Amino acid sequence: MDRRWMIRRAAWWRLLGISMACVLVFVAGYVTHVRWDWTEDQVYSLSDSTRNVLQTLDEPILIRAYVSEGMPQPYGRLRQFLVDMLLAYHDAGHGNVDFEMVNPDANSTVAASLQALNIPKVQVRVVEDDRAQIKQGYMAVVLEYLDHKETIPVVQSESGFEYLLTRKIKKLTGAGRHKIGVANGYGAFGLDQLQRFAGVMTEDYEVVSVDPEAEPIATDIVALIVAGVDKKPSETWRYHVDQFRMRGGGVLLFTGNAKPNLTAGFAVSMMDPYTSQWLAKDLGVHIEPGLVMDQKATRVTVNRQQGIYTFSSQVDYPFVPRIVSMGQDSPVTQELEAVSMPFPSPLALPAGAVPLMYSSDWSAVQGGPPFDVNPLMNMQQRFAGLQMRPSLLAWSKAGTVSSAFTAMPESLQSASAEESKTTEPDFMARTDVSSLVVVGAPAMLNDDFFDGSTAVFVLNAIDWLVHDEGLISLRSRGVSERPLEQMDASEREMYKFFWTFGLALLVVLAGVARWRLLRRRSRRIPALA
């Protein structure tokens, strides 16, 4: 038998065997729903947090994905993504999660029901046959649990979908949302001044306004937000906040040396110096002098007047640094990429606390008051002569805490004795379950500065304060920022020299080496002949 024919036949048999093995692996993976997720943040795989939520289901939940067929990109590829993800939810739900894929365009009744749920059509601009036109369709998810419904009106991308869906499931099946209080009084930003913050928080929590001056903080409130107190609080206000902590309530505090005064343009107003005394005595918070400036800054719009004309321009504003140095020892910031922090003040780290955020190595502290926050000042001029070093801007602490009071104030004792007054709870001198998060930026929750990354940080912090950390790891899934490392002048010159001359030199050396190799081969050929 011809040897070449035998070799060829063996090769064909090997090829057939490999092909059959690939088909069997594909079929087995399709039947068993086994997949390999190679994305950095495992966007296409369910997290342990989602699996834990699904394991708590005691009643079936139905998920319907309404996806119009023939949608252009990027919505076209989302249909298969939804199928894969909902299949993963179904498998992890152990019989308590069912799903359906529905084409709403095929049934007018379905489209009408979606309109009743205030689910809009997605509009996508496409070019077909040399004409630009608008295509409309649905890309929505509706969850049904017992007699309750929740919706995701538009699925825009793969990133963040697991968090949205798991949050809706948790909201549907939970015993109830936690209640969060926002403290009023003594310069604190009230709930009516934090509209964007309130809009985001109400998806996960019930947010209410609290006045510690008027009455004790309700026992059903599990966390308290104190933002921007700039005057020394009264003894009653302090006592009610103190006793809230003694009952195990968590506190998220935003404080600093100055608050922005946006009605006067780029300006700040000073905090009452007595405020720091209350912070140190009651909460163990020590604010170091000055305002932090950082060359890794957020860009802001500045209006310039020249004659009768007004020009707008974007400038890097060092008093709104872009914080990328996150503490990795706390779930609050472990997966967080970046946060903008307006007019921050440096903080001292108390014993037992965990650092959460630092400014960059290219930051410095401006002494004051007063503070010069003019956005048009040259960056080099502003940082001239200042020591560049990172500053601590946020920290957290949990554990045993003693009350700042030795007993209930006499004014409250006499008031609680009157039948017309609210009865004061018994005094508590100590707690083992205290939790506190401190941020050195009083105006971080203001509508002018509150953005998506701030929302993620605040939600993470409150989840940590109320000991409900199931969704923290999901919020930051999906890398969205790749910050560049800043270099000093000598490093920039070195790289510039290399790419200008070094790369050309490497090409020349490679050419010489190639020439020598060819020359050696050409000399060897006649000798072999």
Keywords:
529 residues, alpha/beta, Glutaredoxin, Rossmann fold, 2 domains, 8-stranded mixed β-sheet, 4-stranded mixed β-sheet, 21 strands, 33% helix, 25% strand
Describe this structure in words.
By secondary structure, the protein is of the alpha/beta class. It folds into two domains: 48-173, Glutaredoxin (3-Layer(aba) Sandwich); 179-475, Class I glutamine amidotransferase (GATase) domain (Rossmann fold). 33% of the residues lie in helices and 25% in strands. It has helices spanning 3-32, 48-55, 78-92, 108-116, 161-173, 195-201, 235-246, 273-283, 379-383, 410-417, 452-465, 472-475, 489-528, and strands at 61-67, 97-102, 122-128, 131-137, 139-145, 148-152, 179-183, 206-210, 221-227, 250-254, 258-260, 268-270, 291-294, 297-306, 309-323, 325-326, 339-340, 354-358, 363-366, 392-402, 430-439. The strands form six sheets. An eight-stranded mixed β-sheet has the order 8-7-9-10-21-20-18-16. The protein has a four-stranded mixed β-sheet with strand order 2-1-5-6, with helices on one face. A three-stranded antiparallel β-sheet has the order 14-15-17. The longest helix has 40 residues, at 489-528. The radius of gyration is 31 Å and the shape is globular.
